[in-house]
Request: fold
Amino acid sequence: MNRLKGQIVAIDCNEHMSLVDVAVGGDVYTATLLETPESADYLKVGNRVTLLFKETEVSLAKNLSGLISLRNRFPATVRSIQRGDILSAVMLNYADKTLISVITTRGMDRLQLVVGDAVEALVKANEIALMAGHHDA
Amino acid sequence: MIQASLKKRLHGANGKFDLDVNLQVAEGEFIALFGPSGVGKTTLLRCLAGLEQAEGNIVINGETWLDTAQRINLSPQQRRVGYMFQDYALFPNMTVRGNLEFALRKGSDKKRVDELLELMGLGELQQRKPETLSGGQKQRVALARALASEPRLLLLDEPFSALDGEMRVHLHDEILRLQRHFAITTIIVSHDVGEVYKLANRVLVMEEGRITHQGNPAEVFSSGQTSGKFRFTGEILAIEPMDVLFSLTVLIGNQIVRVVAMPNEAGLLQAGDRVMLVSKAFNPMVFKLG
Reply:
């Protein structure tokens, strides 16, 4: 799974759910959680957390324009591509970190992705989990 | 509320060590003692039941069961503990009903036996002798008998380890139902993560006679706190390459599921490994059954 270390910068919550903003380097990403600062001790502004999301939940876009509801857009470059029959894995450089996106080979071909391409990795806030503390794989 | 502080010298496979435990259990809690063999889990249960001696004290709801400084040490009968062993320990010469009636406290109503026979679905078997019962049936009788004495504390020592998967799952459901029905404080010894997960509110991990950490099973068995709500422990049955991913076949309870993993994740795993599967609460789709 993809892991990014960050720090909680804001929490917006109601009785049952929270939108948690996490700074990773200079960027801020958002996770929707079925937890609140009351039910989970680690949800505090300033706490260190690790963002977790599955490779198969990472979409890719090239030259994206217009409005999009997605909150989580990671500017990245394609480092390498592993082509499969149905699914392909795209290794991305995001700042000094690595992200992996697994998308359909068909989708990859439609983007005509090649190594060095500038892309945006897109992840729905629903698909991001948080783990208390900083954890490497 | 149970408060116990117990010390006892034990002779383990790797030499002597001390059982040294402080325990606080709230009324109605379901606690699991988890850890490898030979760390003192069964000894701790036996000390609570009064079947073994230890230094220290045990107070349950204000009543002192043990206080070695004051030379107080109630007998197992006086403590009123329901104890269920792995090997059933039913009286072979008595019927199912006889086993339960024998465990009743003096003067208590025989209706409790009828209630337990009905609750456990043992009505049809009540005149049978233990030798004619299956393993699962014997264990249900043993559980009913442990409850017959109206215990204030139910102690379960790896009660399901001799049973097959399906029967275990069935008995887990049964024990949860009864534990809630009687709201009885329960301590189970187990080294099955899945079992602990399913049954216990709180797990105490024991090593070398001491409780090294504790918490709810999700906290204790996950490598850190995660916000995933959809979480199961299981056993890897198979790992197969699938395009650029790997497919993992995982046994969860008695259900087999398949999930995908990245090559670097699959590389750390082999068949037989225990894993935790975590997903966001948003992913699972829900279908009503029946």
Chain B touches chain A through 19 residues (CB under 8 Å). The longest helix of chain B spans residues 165-182. Chain B has a mean pLDDT of 88.
